[in-house]
UniProtKB/TrEMBL annotation:
Transmembrane segments: none
Domain Putative restriction endonuclease, residue spans: 14-172
Stored Pfam families: Uma2
Entry protein name: Putative restriction endonuclease domain-containing protein
Length: 186
């Protein structure tokens, strides 16, 4: 995989499926990103978020990484998708997007637990990607700071974010569900 970037300019899901299964990758606009193994703190926070959402949301499905999310352009097939991500946690309300091995189309909520090694990618590349594909809510969770930054789609763009600390309560756009931030970081 080291020299793949030199051989082609852009990759698709079809290419992605051929890569070494020992490593996890994401594709953003055709560019591959190797995913590092998460820390214990990261996994604890991901688990807490998953269970908070799973126990609160009744009409939608909640998923946890690793599960591929294919974000496709208008007439693009799944195999031609240049955008394949594995969000830490995501919520899908349209069950037709859920296939046997992946989700195709934008989830309603995507949660990324930010680590020092992913902060730039989460704040720039993924932010732009999720906005482009109209993910309704994008959460950036920072375990070390114990904060959650929530971006919500307004007129096809992310508006000013809401930032929550341990004393906050996030009200989701779907089902008016309330999540206590302290539960995420316990």
């Amino acid at each position: 995989m080291k020299n793949i970037a030199k051989m082609q300019v852009s990759y698709s899901y079809k290419d992605y499926l051929q890569w070494d299964e020992k490593h996890r990758y994401e594709l953003i606009e055709g560019v591959p990103y190797l995913l590092a193994s998460p820390s214990v703190l990261h996994q604890r926070v991901v688990g807490n978020i998953y269970f908070s959402l799973k126990n609160s949301i009744k009409e939608c499905s909640v998923f946890i990484s690793p599960l591929d999310v294919l974000l496709v352009e208008n007439n693009e097939s799944a195999m031609d998708s240049k955008n394949v991500v594995q969000p830490d946690v995501f919520v899908v309300c349209d069950e037709s997007k859920i296939k046997e091995k992946y989700c195709i189309g934008a989830p309603d909520i995507i949660v990324e637990v930010v680590s020092p090694s992913t902060a730039s990618k989460d704040a720039i590349e993924k932010f732009n990607l999720y906005e482009k594909f109209k993910v309704k809510e994008y959460w950036m969770v920072r375990p070390e700071e114990k904060t959650v930054t929530v971006f919500r789609l307004e007129n096809d763009r992310y508006g000013r974010p809401d930032v929550y600390d341990e004393n906050g309560e996030i009200i989701l756009l779907i089902e008016n569900v309330k999540i206590k931030v302290k539960d995420i970081f316990e």
